[in-house]
Amino acid sequence: SGVYFRYERSAPDTLSDLSFTVRAGELTCLLGGNGAGKSTALLCAAGLLRPYAGQIAVFGKKLKSYPGQSLYRDCLALLPQDVQTLFLCNSVAQELQDAGADAKAFPFDFGPLLSKHPYDLSGGEQQALGLCKALAAHPRLLLLDEPTKGLDAFAKARLGRLLLDLKTQGITILCVTHDVEFAAQCADRCALFFRGQVISEDAPRAFFSCNSFYT
Question: Residue 205 is inside which H or E element, if any?
Fold first, then answer.
């Protein structure tokens, strides 16, 4: 609500009077051009960047009211655009063990990959591993930054099915994406970012058919 953020004091605002609500239990996609502020908004929502004005609340509770690391336990998880930044171990097995992830409950077979280095996986396999690690924190809100980037059609379809399954489990999902087709197929609501603000939002059919930005 009314959020302002800039990366340097002398720089222009990246987020400018941003007010936006994500509905619990829905999958919401943020779309818009490069530099519009989508990823910055995601990082602010995750508490990794601090706005100089405005308020951010997660499930009705202000971010500053979450002490220590409590925001990231049973509440919120972020899957960044560069998923490799999550990998700290030398094998997939170690990554899963280190995160305390229940790979058997995750709808992806990591068995053939357990001895591989995470950097040697395909883009889709890295996304699956990163998502499995993120879900180990049992988030109620999942933030995703360009999750379909670099994925082939098969991996993208598998990710879509997985996100819809997570939604049925009660997880709220906010996804930054340039992938119009993915948003149209998977989102409950889409929102258009422009110059640090959300200027349009609606259900996918109305959003894409009535929004001149995408004609």
Answer: helix 204-210
**Mean pLDDT across the stretch 182-188?**
94
| CA-closest candidate to residue 116, choices 105, 102, 104, 128 | 128
pLDDT digits (tens, 9 = 90+) for 37-88: 999 999 999 999 999 999 999 999 999 999 988 999 999 999 998 999 999 9
What is the 3-state secondary structure of 118-183?
Answer: HHHCCHHHHHHHHHHHHHCCCCCEEEEECCCCCCCHHHHHHHHHHHHHHHHCCCEEEEECCCHHHH
| pTM for the predicted model, two decimal places | 0.91
CA dist 155 and 211 (Å) reads 28
Terminus-to-terminus CA distance in the chain, angstroms? 30
